[in-house]
Specification:
3 helices, disordered N terminus, about 250 residues, globular, nine-stranded mixed sheet, five-stranded mixed sheet
């Protein structure tokens, strides 16, 4: 029953995002917004190599955590007010703390939700060599037929039967039958409404709860699947889970 309730919540949020009017606000001024992501495990800031316990009772440690996000949007009254550059993508990388601060300019002023996409749109998966954060040198690309790794988690667990007890989750897939792109829509803290200001920058702190990688929409045991490196049904389950990792913590002006 708990799984069904969580699944229902995630599906409802995704439907809100999809059902919103696909409109770009033309309110004139562009407002700066900063998203500050904080990766956590067991309620504490993530530390590489530290032992944690997932919600399924399995120990694990992390040596790599990366994720692509893009299409940052504000949502108010069913209208999506998008970033000026819809082609902008960002690579969150736990080995580079500065990557967890994302700044962009948006045209919408008032909003009640912040939205973004996890993963890279299909066209960029088949468009040849890319530059910047989409450069294959970042270690987030398979081949032109399977495309980008949307999210990556690596580490160790005593429940893994892989060499050196490794856990390796490279989650991707852009075709309709193996889609791992997910939409995230988050209410502001306290369900409040917020108005951006041209003279200040708004910062939204967003917690990433890595525990939910294993247990949220689906219960995914390390012992059952210690490694996955191809698109498909299991990857899509992990994608369902990683869409639920995020939660807004605070919002402030600077």
């Amino acid at each position: 029953m708990k799984i069904l309730r969580v699944a229902g919540t995630v599906i409802a949020l995704v439907l809100v995002f999809i059902s919103c009017k696909k409109e770009v606000s033309n309110e004139g001024n562009q407002y700066m917004i900063r998203l500050k992501f904080t990766p956590t495990a067991n309620g504490e800031p993530l530390e590489f190599g530290k032992q944690y316990l997932n919600p399924l009772g399995e120990d694990f440690s992390i040596s790599a955590f990366k994720m692509y996000i893009g299409h940052i949007s504000l949502v108010e009254d069913g209208t999506i007010k998008v970033a000026e550059n819809r082609e902008a993508y960002y690579l969150l990388n736990a080995a580079e703390p500065a990557s967890f601060i994302v700044e962009t300019g948006l045209n919408g002023r008032k909003f009640t939700h912040i939205g973004f996409q996890i993963g890279i749109d299909s066209i960029y998966n088949v468009s040849g060599a890319q530059a910047g954060v989409l450069d294959p040198a970042n270690g987030m690309f398979w081949t032109w037929s399977t495309g980008y790794i949307m999210a990556k988690l690596e580490g160790n667990s005593s429940y893994s039967n892989e060499v050196n007890n490794n856990i390796v989750y490279h989650i991707g897939g852009f075709k309709s039958s193996e889609q791992s792109i997910r939409q995230v829509v988050l209410p502001l803290p306290g369900q409040q409404s917020w108005a951006l200001d041209t003279n200040t920058e708004t910062e939204i702190e967003i917690k990433i709860d890595i525990d939910k990688w294993f247990s949220s929409v689906h219960q995914l045991y390390i012992a059952a699947t210690p490694a996955i490196m191809t698109p498909g049904a299991v990857s899509m389950q992990y994608a369902d889970n990683y869409a639920s990792l995020f939660n807004t913590v605070s919002i402030n002006r600077y």
